[in-house]
């Protein structure tokens, strides 16, 4: 989870426990199931380092867009020294990852969106994490980025190791199918809070689909176009875990391509299609692009604040 102080951790664990008691055991990923061991080769766990490189602690998810670059949520890394983090790829069981049994990479650089605003609702909640050395493992791979004109809709996939109904992280990687809703529906679910220019929302309008919980943020929502799977959004925030009418909110990656391409001299990501079976997702061109950064905005380093993310990030 994010770097909450102890009182905040206790508060949110209590809220999650109450939600579990009210909503029942299905809260741990409504409509979710265990992912295949190699189904999400681009999904990594960003962890706090333990002593001697062992007993690391899962913090957030992240998505590989190249073998040396991860996109995650800004709230996952803001205020955290790069030396205290490690990125683990190719894992299915979190218990294996935290013991340092899989491929770990140190962090060489963290770049947070210059217009990131933390707090209970995260604006421009996106960050780039560069790795010290490339991953070199056949079980690890990057995912293609969307085009600047990509619009995501229909059924997509989410995945993560976030909270279960026992209010602990899942050891197994869990996936869920969610429906991406129209910007109008998202704005209705979150009046004023939802930013239709830079965010998308998915799942749980009627409590019938998967949802995310703490520990899943920073990961992504992965959709399909005519070329295959692509990285549609960064898991950011929402109210409750599996709460009807409260879909998860994601930073829309297509709206941040200008900023991503501007960091450290230009693009650093794969354009190779991931091989997988598509779900029913439709696409349509946008009238224009609205990058989350101002054209003259400077890239900032990690900031000294963490947002309060309500019990969400794991559908």
TrEMBL record:
Residues 29-265 form the Peptidase S1 domain. The keyword Signal applies. Keywords: Disulfide bond, Signal. Residues 270-315 are annotated as: Disordered. Residues 1-24 form the signal peptide. It holds the Pfam family Trypsin. Residues 270-285 have a biased composition (Low complexity). This is Peptidase S1 domain-containing protein. It comes from Orchesella dallaii.
């Amino acid at each position: 989870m994010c770097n909450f102080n102890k009182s905040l951790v206790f508060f949110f664990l209590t809220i999650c426990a109450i939600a579990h008691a009210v909503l029942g055991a299905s809260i741990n990923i409504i409509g979710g199931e265990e992912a295949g061991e190699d189904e999400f080769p681009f999904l990594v766990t960003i962890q706090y380092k333990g002593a001697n490189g062992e007993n690391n602690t899962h913090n957030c998810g992240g998505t590989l867009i190249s073998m040396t670059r991860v996109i995650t949520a800004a709230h996952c890394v803001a205020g955290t020294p790069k030396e205290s983090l490690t990125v683990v790829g190719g894992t299915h069981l979190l218990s294996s990852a935290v013991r340092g049994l899989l491929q770990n990479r140190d962090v060489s650089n963290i770049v947070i969106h210059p217009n990131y605003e933390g707090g209970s609702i995260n604006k421009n909640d996106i960050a780039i994490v560069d790795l010290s050395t490339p991953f070199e493992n056949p079980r690890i791979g990057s995912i293609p980025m969307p085009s600047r004109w990509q619009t995501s809709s229909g059924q997509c996939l989410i995945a993560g190791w976030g909270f279960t109904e026992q209010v602990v992280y899942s050891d197994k990687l869990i996936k869920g199918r969610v429906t991406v809703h129209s910007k109008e529906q998202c704005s209705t679910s979150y009046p004023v809070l939802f930013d239709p220019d830079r965010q998308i929302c998915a799942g749980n309008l009627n409590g019938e689909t998967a949802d995310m919980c703490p520990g899943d943020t920073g990961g992504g929502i992965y959709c399909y176009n005519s070329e295959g799977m692509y990285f549609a959004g960064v898991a950011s925030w929402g109210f409750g875990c599996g709460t009807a009418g409260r879909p998860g909110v994601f930073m829309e990656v297509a709206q941040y391509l200008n900023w991503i391409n501007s960091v450290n001299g230009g693009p650093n990501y794969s354009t190779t299609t991931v091989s997988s079976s598509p779900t029913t997702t439709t696409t349509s061109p946008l009238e224009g692009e609205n990058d989350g950064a101002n054209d003259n905005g400077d890239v900032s380093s990690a900031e000294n604040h963490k947002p309060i993310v309500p019990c969400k990030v794991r559908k």
